[in-house]
Specification:
By secondary structure, the chain is mainly α. The chain has one domain. It contains 11 helices and no strands. It has helices spanning 3-14, 18-30, 32-44, 47-55, 58-63, 65-87, 104-116, 119-128, 140-168, 170-174, 177-199. Helix 2 packs antiparallel against helix 3 (32-44), helix 3 (32-44) runs antiparallel to helix 9 and helix 4 packs antiparallel against helix 9.
């Protein structure tokens, strides 16, 4: 495992995006345990993109305008849905005194959808993974699977770190309604901004 791959992966994972935003919101709204569940869901959402990159299916998104646009539209709509729910106090930033996850399954599904409905991820991994596999690699498939596993582990660890840090200031947030209202609007705006960025994305 090259240090270049680890450093590049860490930079990509730590960069603010939908997964980071979702995990932060989970930590702020329901505590550290919920942030771990959210991070797990976001990590699972990477699996289809990794599989597509390894098997070459990501090339379909790269060459088919219809497939890319369809997945992109679904992703934009889902991000707007999350923004709307956040503003209505029913979504990601619904803060409750009880930190027990309302539904771990629902949080995991939401985390998966956050990543799976982003066609740019498939294309990114399609271009990213082969750079770290030599042309003469005897078993390129297994090598790419190994790299994918390391990338997912880094994703989970970093996202949990984000979520736990957010959970550590949770008590200060829920005791200040004005701050919570400001944060709710900020997160909703961030989801909208990410949706707009995805809407403008080109293959």
């Amino acid at each position: 495992m090259s240090i270049e791959f680890l450093l590049t992966s860490l930079i990509v994972v730590a960069a603010p995006g939908t997964g980071v935003l979702y995990t932060l919101a989970a930590g702020l709204s329901r505590g550290a345990r919920a942030s771990v569940v959210a991070a797990f869901g976001c990590t699972l959402g990477i699996v289809p993109h990794m599989a597509a990159a390894i098997t070459g299916l990501a090339a379909i998104l790269h060459t088919s305008a219809l497939a890319f646009q369809a997945l992109k539209i679904l992703g934009v709509l889902y991000l707007l849905y999350m923004a709307w729910n956040t503003l209505r106090e029913q979504g990601t930033l619904k803060v409750e005194a009880d930190t027990a996850p309302r539904s771990a399954w629902r949080m995991i599904v939401s985390g998966v959808l956050v990543n799976i409905l982003n066609p740019k991820l498939s294309i990114f991994f399609f271009a990213f993974l082969p750079q770290f596999v030599s042309a003469g690699e005897p078993d390129a498939f297994m090598r790419m699977a190994e790299l994918s596993g390391v990338f997912m582990a880094l994703t989970f660890i970093v996202f949990v770190g984000y979520g736990v840090c957010a959970a550590s200031v949770r008590a200060h947030i829920i005791s200040r309604p004005r701050v919570l209202s400001w944060m709710r609007r900020t997160f909703a705006a961030a989801f909208v901004a990410l949706g707009a960025k995805l809407a403008l994305a080109e293959r």
